[in-house]
């Protein structure tokens, strides 16, 4: 009675060859979408122009950290609309 492995070496190599670039591509795509969303959110926010420039530069220089900080800190400090 022999036990064959569920995945042989060729299958693991194929998964690694296809899977690793796919994970990096999805991660890169997620970062691009996050930065684009942050830029549009900054442009259409109700903060003054000077702060928009500061946040925009921060998102361009440090894309992931800048975009995350904008969504967690910057958007919360925008003035509330008075009707």
Structural features, described:
This protein has one domain. The mean pLDDT is 83. Helices cover 72% and strands 0% of the residues. It has helices at residues 9-43, 49-61, 63-74. The protein has 83 residues and is mostly helical. The relative contact order is 0.11.
Write the layout of secondary structure elements.
Blueprint: H1 9-43, H2 49-61, H3 63-74
Compact summary:
Helix content is 72%, strand content 0%.
Main traits of this protein?
83 residues; 3 helices; 72% helix; 0% strand
Taking the sheet with the most strands, its summary is:
none
Order of helices and strands: HHH
End-to-end gap: 79 Å
What integer is the average pLDDT? 83
Amount of beta strand: under 5%
Helix content: over 70%
Give the helix/strand class. Answer: mainly alpha
* Total domains: 1
Computed over alpha carbons, the radius of gyration is: 22 Å
Please report the total strand number as a whole number.
Answer: 0
- Global shape: rod-shaped
Instruction: Indicate the low-confidence ranges by residue numbers.
Output: none
- The number of distinct helices, counting runs of at least 4 residues, comes to 3
């Amino acid at each position: 009675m022999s036990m064959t492995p569920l995945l042989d070496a060729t299958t693991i190599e194929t998964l690694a060859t296809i899977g690793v670039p796919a994970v990096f591509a999805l991660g890169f795509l997620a970062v691009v979408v996050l930065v684009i969303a942050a830029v549009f959110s900054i442009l259409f926010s109700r903060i003054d122009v000077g702060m928009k420039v500061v946040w925009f530069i921060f998102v361009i220089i440090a894309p992931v950290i800048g975009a995350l900080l904008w969504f967690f800190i910057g958007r919360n400090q925008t003035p509330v609309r008075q009707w």
